Fold each of these.
Amino acid sequence: MLKNIAVIKGDGIGTEIIDEAIKVLKKIEAKYGHTFNLEYVPMGGCAIDEFGVALPDSTLEACKKADAVLLGAVGGPKWDNPSAKVRPEQGLLGLRAGLECYANIRPAKVYKPLSSASPLKDAIIADGFDIVMVRELTGGIYFGESGREGDSAFDTERYSVSEIERITKVAFEIAMGRKKVLHSVDKANVLESSRLWRETVVKVAKEYPEVSLIHILVDNAAMQLVRNPAQFDVMVTSNLFGDILSDEASMITGSIGMLASASIGATSNGIYEPIHGSAPDIAGKGIANPIATILSVAMMLDYSFGLKQEAADIDNAVNQVLSENYRTADIYTEGFIKVSTTEMGKLIFDKINN
């Protein structure tokens, strides 16, 4: 298989974690006989410094032509001025819009060797959990009409049937490849936009008779995530609810440095990145955790390229390394073996046997 990948290292620890992820990708390339052509392009603070914009036109064009985009992280205190007209985060928003990425996919998984890091009781996560959160990314209250009138302010939640249909189909397709159970999260007992959401999801469900559809109100979903997260497999919800619930799901894993994400949309081209930030305070110290970025490569292989075995190879390698008690600083506790960014990358690399 031949695939072209646009690689954005970005700012802060982006360079370090991307380097380790690329090594693992190259190991997969060699093992399975694929060809992954890499084009490195700038975005974020480094692009502002060089070009005066967070997302140069040449970068966006390269990403559009690529089969997928692998992203490290953007931002940092150097550019963190709320009044600045140009900010690193604008690059990410522009990239999502340019690639028409309307679906944010965020797995939240507890690896058994790391279960002690979860804030939940052992009895709750004894068997672990593996959730995929599908969040609508380009509509809803964040993009509705907003403003101020006198001493009041307003933000409008608005969704169209077509917006709900397309995000729901993404979720159903993912559910078909997993346990065939989908929880749709809304607030249909109060919000008209949620009533439309539920009506539309029910219509789409007729195209996927093998999938069990379960409706759940957002407040109950928030409670159930901490009471019994293992009951969930795939969850789909709106932009606002997904923003909150995906953060909750990530934190109950206890290890934000372990979590990958994908933003996909109109084509198979997607943006794959860790959910954590650029962590400028530890940049260059060799202590950043590369696992979330390495797992983002696994998501890219799976979702954009359909290479499920290759993706599973990476996931298994990560699990083996953790089972052997190796930890980067962010997930280290006494009694384990502390390793650097590059050491962790090499350990995972070595587990992917030729």
Amino acid sequence: MEYHIEKLASPGAIVGEGPVWNPEENKLYWTDIQGGKLFKYDPETGSNDVIHDGVEVGGYRFNEGGGLILGTWEGVMLWHSDDDFKWIQSGNFEGKDTAIKINDATSGPDGSFYCGTDASDWQSDILFRVNTDTSIDIIDEGITLCNGMGFSPDETKFYNTDTLAKTIYQWDYNSTTKALSNKKVLVKINDESEGITDGMTVDSEGFIWSAIWWGSKVMRFDPDGKLEREIYFPATQTSCPMFGGKDLNELYVSSAGWGSGSSPEEATGIEPKGYDFNAYRGGDLFRVKLDIQGKPEYRTKF
């Protein structure tokens, strides 16, 4: 199957990530984590405005009471503008040395905020939930790098990504109690020449879309974890997919320019076998129109 890939914006994002569609505005928000910026892309005009410039934003969601909940490298904040915000959680987790430094986030059906850290040098990161009363529940520990999360359309499953393990986990989710149980491996990429699982989203049919960093693509898996299709993009560091557009049938994909110009001698050591260090990495926002619909993202309730 051939796809028409559009390059929409090229701000040179160091770690372009986390696109989220705002249906009221018909605009797409996305972040440059390492660049400390939030963008707002307007499909009507093609403008890509910087709306935040400061603390690094790993993940965020729109808040039902107004503003955005930002999961940042310094904690969780309720943000209306760079001049109007308040911290909800910051510092370290209670009783732990691990900082609340967030790499990715999503909202739960009840309006809580699910986050994963990048605070332990890829050793033992934490998946946690900030409840609407601002208390924290630690869901899982020992993750090498927390990444994409999402819920099944019937709200019975929760998914989260461990990037360096190249794994997407599935949990049973109780929408009444918010309890998560029966963690199991749904997707495991064992090919040494394959990239690593990064950001993700879930469509209206319950299929999981995972961006493959260093793989130039997004992979779609069925609810049993079987690969259904792959869509390739002209950047190796594809970082996160998200559905948008008025009919939620447009897949927006962020990419990252981090590491551009590196050589094998400057490698991180986790690149896939045979990775082309001279290939274009990214920093752009892409779009592809599909015959598949996404589902609206939940909003937080802080």
